[in-house]
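Data availability (excerpt). The following record was deposited with the supplementary files.
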Amino acid sequence: MRVGVHLVNFDVPGGAAAIGPTLARVGVAAEAAGVDNLSTMDHYLQIAGMGLGDADAPMLEGYTTLAFLAAHTTSVELQLLVTGVTYRHPGLLAKIVSTLDVLSGGRAVLGLGAAWYEREHAAFGVPLPPLAERFERLEETLRIVQQMWSEDNGPFHGKHHQLAETINSPQPLRRPPIMIGGAGEKKTLRLVARYADATNLFARPDTGPEQVRAKLEVLAEHCAREGTDYDRIRKTVLWAAPVATHAEGGEAFADQIAEYAAVGIEEVHVMPWTGDPVGFVEGLGEHVVPRLKQL
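Predicted structure:
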């Protein structure tokens, strides 16, 4: 079982001046802990209602944060979980992720989703089209980034995006894996089967693995229709609950995740909900990661 740490709380002791040093220590601690992936949210405002503060709580721009983490790590993958399709023009997004990949030595992952947080769109004056249009834009974005990460420098003509040229130099050191977030059975999982290298689903203690199993069965059906190798798609979950990082908690969490491994999950992303992400990651490395790696 691969392990990711998803950074969601930037309200750290010492205020804004302490965020940078704290994240630098998170990067060092994550690699010492055996973490495979570091991610952060792609939001302008903190999500009220998550227990992490109101909308005016600290929130960092995602790709700038990943670039900082790239300088303080050497091996972990780096991604947003997940990039909102409405926040950046697709050509610019392909360029940003390419740059992250080059500067990190080939460690970028493109996480992508349809976006949803209406309040921050309105706050920053970013259009939020209807859901059906966002999915059309999501598919066009997937096509554009794939073209830009290829030898095809020609134009792209879509319903929503027109690019005269798709020049992208330098190219990524490796083609960044594409992870699509979301569990929608008709559209999202179809796009995973058609374009992605990984799927990211939600998991919670009160739902259990059967719901995830059902989603993976739908994904397998889409793969069969699309002619995609289901086995090559990385199956991941974001654990939407706190994780105890002491010995007893680590054992209990590993027992829970073993049930997800049994239905095909290969990677779990966990969140440090408190303002001490370094302590969380250190505890993860001591009491949780070794158990998960045995699954």
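Summary of structural features: Residues 4 and 121 are 28 Å apart (CA to CA).
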